[in-house]
Design a protein that fits this description.
2 copies of one chain form a homodimer.
Chain A: H1 20-34, E1 67-68, H2 71-76, H3 83-90, E2 100-102, H4 107-120, E3 123-127, E4 148-152, E5 159-163, E6 168-172, H5 177-185, E7 189-190, H6 203-209, E8 226-233, E9 236-239, H7 252-256, E10 265-272, E11 274-275, E12 279-287, H8 290-301, E13 309-313, H9 315-320, E14 329-337, H10 343-355, H11 365-392, E15 394-402, H12 408-426, E16 433-442, E17 445-455, H13 461-478, H14 494-500, H15 503-516
Parallel strand pairs in A: 2-4, 3-4
Antiparallel strand pairs in A: 1-2, 5-6, 6-10, 7-11, 8-9, 8-10, 12-14, 13-14, 15-17, 16-17
Helix pairs in contact in A: 1-11, 3-11, 3-13, 8-10, 12-13
Chain lengths: ~525, ~525
């Protein structure tokens, strides 16, 4: 299988690496834009210089045709894409590389890998785009396992069937955003699931982690688009029927959604698709404060207007993403439809904005669209910029949650205060920055997304971030939020997740896992500890 | 606890029983309306004439304050409300009455009942409105149990908290539709969940069975309105956080939704509520055929207009429900909004109807609204009418499913043919009637609901229906449908459900149950057989 090689650390492909001069130029521009004083650029540890621990298990003869164990394969499957992952990769710290990487081309090959893992007590880690920010793909497994195999699903990247009548498509789990959309595009259809990781993350990964995407309201998470799912478990094929809706017991699809690889390997799904929107209207609306913008967004979220885009940024976030000048909070609002004009919806939404002192004055379409475009570009470019920030020695990470509206003002204040205090303590100096936006909104509350930026101490970035993460997560959980709205649990959120999820539910999930994965080989350490 | 007594069989309260003269008049009108020749009315076996099997276990001293075991309590908790249940109750056949009925007033009392059941190996059957049509509340348990207790939750009928900011309410599981809506109404809010069983069915029952309600599109099932759920399991309290959205692993709420009492007793939930709609628009549109109406409904369901009501009836169904004269299929279309006028949405929907030769000519509002009102009244009155039909000796039952659009035409033809053939065989004579409607529609397919009416042979009605049910269910499952879109699985759908659900999922659910209900006391026989 010939796959374009990813960088062994950080974001993007090997063939995209900027030159030293380009990197210096980008870094200088970023430092100036962010108002940060930064020291000299560092350079990542090269692939050839890595010293990976030798594999604990070797590729068995029966799997040699689909498995690789070279340094690039092992290093590039050792970490996800959290800030800590990128720093660790940059610094050549690959503590838990898989012993080898399997690249199955069909379900039978996945079954063969799982059979071998079960027989040999080797952990099996499903790997899609590798963009987990919570340790979901890191082969950091208990010593009771004899090793760990990363199962890279990117060879399964086809749209297998399109049903234009019911507007659905059967798509393999390893298809990343661009491949999936370009194949659907040939039939003038689109899934419209555009998470920030879109370029690399895959359909299977989205389903396994309940990823949230394009739509800011109503159908926010990928499972809202899923018609049926197919997965290979150690106990056999888990395949649901294609159904537009069902009330037959507990939903099998909703038990796979969010299972994060602990029950099996998702191989394909039927998902609901649609033609590209024929009607679109977007606008940027300024607010004097984030809280007044939040009140307005609450009203919009409860209006039933259901905008496709409804993303509120505080002043700093707007400035960072070049959508605003830092003097005002900004709401990016968008409506779209395959069928009918959306002007009336936008007009009503802007009325609600005006009632909340929102200001769309800057020339309506033209100025607003500029802000919206700036935001979009910054959104998709952010993961690339983060690699530069790491080289610059700037700590750059996010955390996100959701909370109901009536608790939001106090919640936001306490989380912000905790974050700022932790930032001051972990990164002394006056340059730490915290910003906030809503990524998705519901009639009963927003999904709240925080970004932290600060010059870090070289070599201690991970510990600095962990101190901040610990402090803010304690507050998020203590104040009633969720430890994640769409970044999943993985290994990194475990300690807070355990306070959040109902005790008997954890027992139930452990019981469910034991039934389909009796050897406990599937992504152990994620979500729950297997019973073994 | 003083609770208004239900009839010991069929639908409604004891104090609502019509007089013999009223019943004869209603029966004559129904026979004439339906064009059925029927014989003399029969009368139900009176409560005093019942001969129930003696209880296998007696009320323990520790629970005597909340338990009753008189004939009315046992008979009225022995059956659900399927046609077969009503016939059996009418004829005095109560084969599996609970040994006693518990009426807990709080969670602690539920825990006490479950503790006793677990210690004594007695099955615990959660009971809300008792309106299951699939044997979900029938204490028909394996002989390995020493008995069965029906846990009647109707004393838990309060709206405990209302959050007007986030538009949500904390409501006890035993609250039936009218009680729940009237309490919410005091704060000018509504849940807007109106299943046909609305008068008696309860919030907890809705969640346990993934009930579908008022909205014909987008948010069709009750779980779409659930913010968090609380349940008592034998392993402890299963309580999720109030969150507008979350991506933290598998959804605990979605594992309780559709669990049909096999994991625990749902005691309360936070649900999303809203003000009453300030803007409404409804219309009736005629179509030359059900299939041309279906094509139109597909276009509407894929338009993103998202009508609140979008119910297509075939000509016979329209006539039966007095919404049409039997010459045309009828689409009942409705838009509603708390915030903005819906005329533009209705206008666009009617344009789509016109493109599909739909005819809204009968005077727009006036004539259409009559059809819509007639349909609404018939919808809510149907369960009462069915009791009369049973007395008339008329078989009257429904079955329902969902299927994707591209398969619908052939699916509908095969299901209809099988139903008509089975009807002819089971009920010889020319008077059997089959009709069809869409209850809910999705961009990828409709929920299809069939009604069967035929004069039955006295005393053999249940066997006649079972022969029909067997034949149509085999086709529904064979052709790729779901055995239920919103009637749940219970005990009656088990054999088809087992062909539908993924094998490893069944193992996972059994594993989950064993973890929270190790003695297997929770509603055994529903969905799965416990491992014990």
């Amino acid at each position: 299988v010939n796959i374009r090689r990813h960088k062994h650390w950080g974001w993007g492909y090997e063939d995209q690496l900027p030159s030293a001069a380009q990197l210096r130029e980008t870094a200088a521009a970023l430092a100036s834009h962010l108002g940060l004083t930064v020291s000299e650029l560092e350079w990542p540890v090269a692939l050839e210089e890595l010293e990976l621990a030798p594999p604990r298990v070797t590729v068995p003869a029966g799997l040699s045709d689909i498995c690789v164990s070279d340094d690039h394969a092992r290093a590039s499957h050792a970490l996800g894409k959290s800030y800590a992952d990128v720093v660790n990769g940059f610094r050549g710290r690959f503590q838990h590389p898989p012993d080898f990487v399997a690249r199955p081309r069909d379900e039978r090959e996945i079954e063969r890998v799982l059979e071998w893992c079960a027989a040999e007590t080797v952990a099996a880690i499903p790997y899609g785009g590798g963009t987990s920010v919570v340790g979901g793909v890191s082969p950091d497994v208990a010593p009771s396992y004899n090793g760990a195999v990363s199962i890279d699903l990117r060879a399964l990247d086809r749209v297998l069937e399109v049903d234009p009548v019911s507007r659905a498509a059967r798509i393999q789990a390893g298809a990343a955003g661009p491949a999936l959309e370009s194949q659907l595009g040939e039939q003038r259809l689109t899934l419209r699931h555009f998470p920030q990781s879109f370029e690399f993350s895959t359909l299977g990964g989205w389903i396994a982690t309940r990823a949230a995407g394009h739509f800011a309201t109503v159908l926010t998470h990928i499972e809202d688009f899923v018609e049926s799912v197919r997965a290979i478990t150690p106990a056999g094929v888990w395949a649901s029927r294609r159904l537009p809706g069902s009330g037959a017991g507990v939903s099998p699809d909703r038990m796979l959604a969010g299972s994060e690889g602990v029950l099996g390997v998702i191989t394909e799904a039927w998902v609901r698709v649609q033609p590209r929107p024929a009607h679109r209207h977007s606008a940027g609306v300024r607010f004097g404060s984030f809280q007044s913008g939040a009140e307005c967004v609450r009203a919009i979220s409860q209006s039933g207007l259901n905008p496709a885009n409804c993303r509120l940024m505080d002043a700093r976030e707007a400035r960072t993403t070049m959508a605003g000048d830092g003097s005002h909070a900004l709401l990016v609002l968008g409506f779209e439809s395959v069928d009918h004009p959306v002007d009336a919806s936008m007009a009503r939404a802007l009325e609600i904005c005006a009632e909340h002192d929102g200001d769309a004055r800057e020339g309506g379409h033209r100025g607003s669209s500029d802000a919206v475009s700036a935001w979009r570009e910054a959104f998709l470019g952010a993961p690339y910029m983060r690699d530069v920030l790491v080289a610059m020695g700037v700590l750059s990470e996010t955390f996100e949650t959701a909370i109901t509206w009536e608790r939001f003002p106090e919640f936001h204040e306490r989380v912000s205060m905790a974050a700022q205090q932790a930032l001051r303590e972990a990164c002394p100096g006056a340059q730490g920055q915290l910003s906030c936006r809503f990524t998705h909104v519901y009639p009963d509350g927003p999904a709240v997304y925080y970004t932290v930026l600060a010059p870090a101490r070289r070599g201690e970035e991970v510990e600095q971030w962990q101190a901040i993460k610990q402090a803010v997560s304690d507050v998020v959980i203590g104040e009633g939020g969720t430890i994640t709205h769409h970044h999943a649990v993985g290994r990194e959120h475990r300690r807070w997740y355990e306070k959040q999820r109902p005790g008997p539910f954890a027992a139930a999930l452990r019981g469910a896992k034991a039934a389909v994965d009796p050897q406990g080989i599937m992504n152990p350490g994620v979500l729950i500890d297997p019973a073994r």
